[in-house]
Amino acid sequence: MLIARKLSALKLKPILSLRFVSPLQRSQLFSSPSCSNPRILCPLPSATPLPLSPSSSSQPFSSKPTPPESPLLTRDGNYSEATSRFSLVCPGCGVHMQDTNRKHPGFFVKPSRKDSNYRLLTHLVPVDDESECSDLLKRGLVMEPEHQKSEENVNEKAQKPTVCSRCHSLRHYGKVKDPALENLLPDFDFDHTIGRRLVSTTGTRSVVLLVVDAADFDGSFPKKVANLVSATIEDNSTVWKQGKSGNVPRVVLVVTKIDLLPSSVSPTRFEHWVRQRAREGGINKITSLHMVSAVRDWGLKSLVEDVIDLVGPRGNVWAVGAQNAGKSTLINSIGKHVGGKITQLTEAPVPGTTLGIIRVEGMFPGQAKLFDTPGLLNPHQITTRLTREEQKLVHISKELKPRTYRIKAGHTIHVAGLMRLDVEETSVDTIYVTVWASPYLPLHMGKTENASKILEDHFGNQLQPPIGKDRVAELGKWVRREFHVCGSSWDSSCMDAAAAGLGWFAIGLKGEAVLSIWTYEGIEVVLRSSVIPDRSNFFEDAGFTVSKVVSKADQAANKSLDQSERKTKKGDSKVHVLAETSGS
Fold this sequence. Notes:
alpha+beta; Rossmann fold; six-stranded antiparallel sheet; 17 helices; 18% strand
């Protein structure tokens, strides 16, 4: 009775249930191997007891699933349905959300509760009623009354989802509020999170959307994923031919942002070029190839139809690609084409926008699911070393325009302070060099003997990025790579020297040449067949060349600087006059 007084009714329930148990069942209950601790009573199937002592090491038996441990600092997102029931996941980036610590990833502010009629503006009272006829009415102009807001119209508008503070800052201000918080998250382990599901011979059908940026194909091509998927296809196909269970992934290569390429590019030639580069990158078997533009809705219809046929009623679709390859933008555009499904994935020209796996349901028929995955970090891309402001200058957001030089041996072309080409030897008098990069990057052409002086005097200043002289040393060591090229025509470019995450030099010549490419140590530079054979009809002049946008920005900055200097000089002159007056 003393024990019963101290226990609550909930804890007393399993004890009272023993009253209706026979002595034989009671002895079997306490002698069960699962009940080794005599202080804890093992329940009957119909009972759900709690432990009598909070300090007990045994776990209570319950039909409810137990929440996972510390899901906040992970990148698994809401892949697992069990995890998403216990933790709130940001629908924009996939990070686990929390509202307790601003200095941890996933922080969000709970929206305040508002009255259902706050959009109807019924609480507003006019300051004064217009008693006389308005001037417009006197002049014979009758204004149509504005569409009155009603409850039906207000309710029809879909409510915006709650997102983390990072997504809110990216959507409204185009930048990350506190980039240091992302360092608290572990690196996205593709092999552990997604790779082990793809290589499994059992489970649902897998379709891999391999998303690659058309303007940075080699820099954004995920070679590690391509090799993993190709090896899985080969191994599982062998198992399947033996009559065993073999889940063979389907690879759909999606080349995004084709609107950034010039309209003169031949689709047939570009498709042949993509397949060749994909084979060299490690993909042995491509189920289908699609070239799309999520911004202009090019090629999305055929892509959606193809994916629906491949995934089936219960398969999984994995969108995989490098950072800033356009996966989230592609998924949002696909959602608009599939039954008007509106997704809320955050889009921003910032590498690493997606932080965790985001499960998107309802886009495909049946129980098929689409997963947006975090962008794969390619340390060989130059954008991984740049600041947010520098990345904006490198980012290509409009159709590429060629900038062509006709130069001789012993001359050099700089692309900002990030890349340089030296023409060392040629079998002909001159060669054509076309720069394909962001129009916001300044160029310089001059003699190779002055290249070291250009680096010392203009890197970080007139050649940006890097922005600032201090940033030049932070980017790493300036190293040289040598390439031998040959061509058979003056009319078009034959070879490209491409730097990952930046752009490329297109070389046109009828003969042979020895070139040197300078960039920072660790940045990938590849020599490939030319993707865009065309060049500009006009040649750039020697010296510094910048875009009109940058020129106007520099003029505005110099104008404001001159004005401030003039004000300073006027202030100094007034002080000097006052000093002379007081001295006299």
